[in-house]
Design brief:
With 489 residues, the protein is mainly beta. The chain has four helices and 37 strands. The protein folds into four domains: 184 residues, Sandwich (Jelly Rolls), CATH 2.60.120; 91 residues, Immunoglobulin-like (Sandwich); 69 residues, Immunoglobulin-like; 78 residues, Immunoglobulin-like (Sandwich), CATH 2.60.40.3760.
Length: 489
């Protein structure tokens, strides 16, 4: 049954005049189910590895249709509509050979421009001038049937497209262009705003039809050829050394793209992928791989992808090595009185967390220096991480006043300072000969260096810039070091 309605297209800043719209409702039969049945019967299957997926027609809008409709693109009204188009996202380079579309005109031979633009990926609208354009003369047609309204445009030379694009039909005179779409009342556009119309001030995909959002897609179908590239990424938080499932994210190009795969729309992709995890376990058929390894050794993982395109099939595979986890935590410490320098000697570490065992905050730098407030025994723990792997090393630090700094104090220089506690400044006096590169450094209670300067026989340190608390002054004279505790009140 054919119905003729009056509709209104409204854009954010523009109001389009009333246009004639005809919609066909196929009672008792879903366009999607019938199209899928016809499509599956016509598809040519292959069973060998293919280099290219061959030539394919992107029938995305027709496949999503619950019913089809026709809408007039009218350049002759007071607020003219000059064209319409649909956006396509691509995963890799495609070669655009031509375009199929469903449309007609009341006047036979009416010319329209079939244009292809690169698209702004945020707005899904044309960006820049057309990258290819062809003129097509329309036939008269039928508002209750699709096949007679199918037109083919083949470009003079195939066009290589390297980014998302939009294919449009644009009027060249004042003759009305009638175009097929799927149903906006049923929401066949899935809210993606792939379709756009052209008005005097540019392109827009914010459209209303009689107060109903135009949630539909035009029947414009690029004819393309491309290559599928099977690929996958190991979970960055997975680790072979951990007895937990190791996950693989499938990143195969085009096979997961709904505009290139009806199975991506239907979410029936599992049987298209076969995983060999390389450990002798059973082959797995699932979109994203998942396996628990029993040994921390290197494996080669193979993914075989069978991609059912709209009108064909392509098959390929990829092998990616999964190296064993070599991560190992290890460190050494050098004591100079209450000051301890830690040196990381871990293997394959990317992150470090130090726990100094005295209740002070942890450190995440690779080779920290820490000043303890008193002598004693402290369990120091280093945890290192690399992606999902972790390793821990613990060392019991025994600090006493008979080691490190105090052995040096008997030697060639001695430092005294006052007052202590101090408030605004402290006076430093050195007994003994100083080297040319003698220096002092002030550390806060967390072991962070807050000031450093040359060490002189007598000098004053300005403490006004610093907050109250416990600090440590580390004095270095050649190969000798002393550390003193300072309280700032």
């Amino acid at each position: 049954m054919k119905r003729t309605l009056q509709i209104l297209l409204v854009l954010p800043l523009s109001c389009l005049h009333l246009m004639t719209f005809a919609q066909l409702t196929q009672e008792g039969q879903s366009v999607k189910s019938s199209f899928k049945r016809d499509f599956l019967n016509s598809r040519v299957l292959q069973h060998n590895k293919t280099i290219s997926c061959g030539s394919d027609t992107l029938a995305y809008a027709r496949y999503n249709a619950t019913t089809f409709s026709y809408i007039n693109i009218d350049p002759g009204q007071s607020n003219p509509v000059l064209g319409a188009g649909i956006y396509f996202h691509i995963d890799d380079t495609v070669v655009l050979e031509g375009v199929n579309f469903y449309a007609y005109s009341a006047i036979a031979g009416t010319p329209v421009n079939c244009n292809v633009y690169y698209a702004n990926t945020l707005t899904k609208l044309p960006a820049g001038p057309p990258i290819v354009s062809e003129v097509k003369n329309l036939r008269t047609g039928y508002s209750f049937w699709l096949p007679p309204n199918l037109h083919h445009v083949m470009f003079a030379s195939p066009v290589t497209v390297t980014a998302d694009f939009i294919v449009t039909l644009e009027t060249t005179n004042l003759t009305v262009l009638t175009m097929a779409t799927n149903s906006w009342t049923s929401g066949d556009g899935l809210g993606k705003k792939y379709s756009a119309i052209k008005i005097n001030n540019g392109w827009s995909n914010s459209i209303n039809v009689g107060g109903v959002p135009f949630n539909a897609d035009f029947y414009i179908e690029p004819v393309v050829s491309y290559k599928m590239t099977p690929s996958f990424e190991p979970d960055p938080n997975a680790c072979l050394a951990n007895p937990v499932p190791f996950r693989f994210k499938n990143t195969t190009s085009f096979a997961l793209n709904p505009q290139f795969s009806y199975e991506a729309i239907d979410q029936t992709l599992d049987d298209n992928f076969i995983w060999n995890y390389g450990d002798g376990s059973q082959l797995d058929t699932i979109k994203d791989g998942l396996n628990t390894y029993s040994s921390n050794i290197s494996y080669w993982v193979n993914l075989k992808a069978t991609f059912n395109t709209w009108y064909g099939q392509c098959i390929d595979s990829a092998d990616i090595p999964i190296p064993a986890a070599d991560l190992k935590a290890e460190f050494e410490a050098t004591q100079q009185g209450l000051l301890v320098r830690f040196k990381d000697k871990s293997v394959d570490a990317e992150e470090w967390t130090w726990v100094f065992g005295d209740g002070t905050p942890n450190s995440t730098i690779q080779n920290p220096t820490h000043i303890y407030s008193n002598y004693g025994t402290f369990p120091v723990r280093l945890t290192v991480k690399n992606k999902g792997c972790s390793s821990v090393s613990t060392l019991i630090m025994k600090l006493d006043d008979q080691t490190g700094l105090h052995d040096v104090d008997i030697a060639k220089f001695n430092v005294s300072f006052s007052p202590n506690p101090a408030s605004e400044f402290v006076e430093i006096k050195v007994d003994g000969q100083l080297s040319e590169d003698a220096s002092w450094s002030l550390f806060n209670i967390h072991g962070k260096k807050v000031q450093t300067a040359q060490l002189k026989s007598e000098q004053q340190i300005d403490l006004k810039p610093f907050n109250r608390g416990v600090y440590f002054i580390n004095f270095i004279n050649g190969s000798e070091t002393q550390t003193k505790r300072l309280v700032l009140k």
